[in-house]
Amino acid sequence: LLQDVVGAVSRPAAPLHAPLLNSSLLTSVAVDEAVQRVRLRHGVTAEELLPYIELSDLAELYAACTGLPDPPPLRGPQFRVCLNFLHMQGAITHFDTPELDSLVVIDCSWLLQAITVIIRHPKLHPLPQDEFHQHTLPFHELYSKGLLDPELACKLLVGMSESEKMRLLHVMLLAKFILPHQFNSECSGFLVPSLLPTTLPDNETLPAGKHYVVHLAPHTTNAL
């Protein structure tokens, strides 16, 4: 039941009557009301898709489905078993880390679309916001050297709240789409492995007759 309800929360104007045919009328009313509260809390209209909810929202839906008078503790063992089951079934995506524990993703395409705002080829996949940043040093460093300035990432992620941007960067770190990197003693950011240069800069060649080890940092090639 909860798996169906989670899907109904995400989808615009999703009918709940079909999955609730085997439930009591009281449970059906409680679930309907819980779904509407969650969607209202996130400020989505009846026509909008809700790509994620908070863990506290899921606990509220869990209580409505199971007839509990109040949502269970977020670290409660029974609720965690249900959370892990939904994750294993693919109904949700949940990251059991301190930074992301409160996030419950329902639509993974939302994550992927946001990630590809940053990890892409700007000439093949340009975005409207590129116009404001394409001539800046951070933009050039990202797409020529694979160095991501967190401030640039936030500027490219148009339409997302600050908390959504921070959560996305944590997801990208967890999935190793990006790696922590110290630019210099005063500035830190991220290294994007998929955007590292695969060719040497213009007019630069490697001496013949030597073997080379390329370290995971841009333009650092040491001869053995």
- Major β-sheet annotation: 3 strands, antiparallel
Quaternary structure: single chain
Q: Based on Cα principal axes, name the global outline.
A: elongated
Spatial gap, N to C terminus: 62 Å
What is the count of helical runs?
8
Arithmetic mean pLDDT = 85
Number of strands: 8
**Low-pLDDT runs:** 17-22, 210-224
Going by helix content, strand content and strand pairing, the class is: alpha+beta
**Rg, Cα atoms, Å:** 23 Å
Relative helix content: 40-55%
Strand content: 5-15%
Q: Biggest sheet: strands side by side, in what order?
A: 1-3-2
Q: Spell the H/E element sequence.
A: HHEHHEEHHEHHEEEE
Q: Mind sketching the topology for me?
A:
Layout: H1 2-10, H2 25-41, E1 52-54, H3 55-66, H4 77-89, E2 93-94, E3 103-105, H5 108-118, H6 137-145, E4 147-148, H7 150-156, H8 162-174, E5 179-182, E6 188-191, E7 212-214, E8 221-223
Antiparallel strand pairs: 1-3, 2-3, 4-6, 5-6, 7-8
Structure description:
It is built from 8 helices and 8 strands; from the N terminus they run ααβααββααβααββββ. The protein has 224 residues and is of the alpha+beta class. The protein has a 3-stranded antiparallel beta sheet. A 3-stranded antiparallel beta sheet has the order 4-6-5. A hairpin with an 8-residue loop joins strand 2 (93-94) and strand 3 (103-105).
Describe this protein with a few key phrases.
alpha+beta; three-stranded antiparallel β-sheet; 8 helices; 8 strands; 41% helix; elongated; disordered C terminus
